[in-house]
Amino acid sequence: MKNILYFAIVVSPLIFFTNVTRNPYIIQGTVLYISLLLIFGLFAVQSLKTGKIIFCRTRLDLPILIFLGWTIFTFFIALSGNYEIAGFGKIPGFSTAAWSEGLRNNLYVLINCVLAYYVAVNLIRDEKSIKKVLFLSFIVAFIASVYAILQYFDM
Question: How many domains are there within the chain?
Answer without folding.
Answer: 2
